[in-house]
Amino acid sequence: MTPITEVEGRRLSLSNLDKVLHPATGTTKGELLHYYATVGPAILPHLRDRPVSFLRYPDGPDGQLFFTKNPPPGTPAWVKTTPVPRSDAPRARQVMVQDLASLMWAANLVVEFHTPQWRAGAPAVADRLVLDLDPGPPATVVECCRVALHLRERLAADGLTAYAKTSGSKGLHLLVPVTPTPSEEVSAYARRLAVDAEAELPRLVVHRMAKALRPGKVFVDHSQNAAAKTTATPYTLRARPLPSVSAPVTWDEVADTAESGAPERLVLLLDSIGPRLETYGELLAPLFDPSAAGPVP
Asked: Does residue 46 contact residue 235 with C-beta atoms inside 8 Å?
């Protein structure tokens, strides 16, 4: 029998609560749903007013994974959607996760949440810049931290402030609040940052995606600033064997990891996020403060 629950006046059918989704820890779907219910106040501001894409993994990370931008079949009428500019589908719409009820409905589908750098009210006008630091083995998140510290200083020299979060996979993301700027201009600046980082740290950084260039280096992926691209939303669980979360970290943690050479320090699992929020609060709060945003050079 499928349990029925009520969230903010909406009736939801929650299915397969005992199904193990993250085999390395035996984490069940019920525990996943409890996680999202608990961190709703933290993740919702990052989702709200942005078209959401889903990476679905209903049978866990070892099952079928599929990425979707269209509202899934059976999307309730009360879940808000928004038109999005897409060349492949001129009348396309995407889900917006605006409240706890729609968050729990989406979480029941077992998804990663991915969002663009712009809001639905201003398509292709970014209010944040993102740099995805992706290590090529044998490099790890340790090398990503070293690159992140370099990029933090470079951004500060340009009058911009960077905030770090784990990718929830192998690397690190840098998020930078910017005054609303066309995505094309943000993309061009992000690419310059990546190219310059490679010139200044040639043994550590690569700005091109070609796999042959990446072993032992950190790929500074600037492409996610394009209007059509998305990034894993802060606090989303990832489709990994461990129930890892793309979660904000302090710059002290980044520096300590870079110095210690211990990548496990930045493996953040779902049961650690509540305590971290109690300890640190919302480390990404400045992303929502217009006074913290700077102009893109």
From this structure: yes
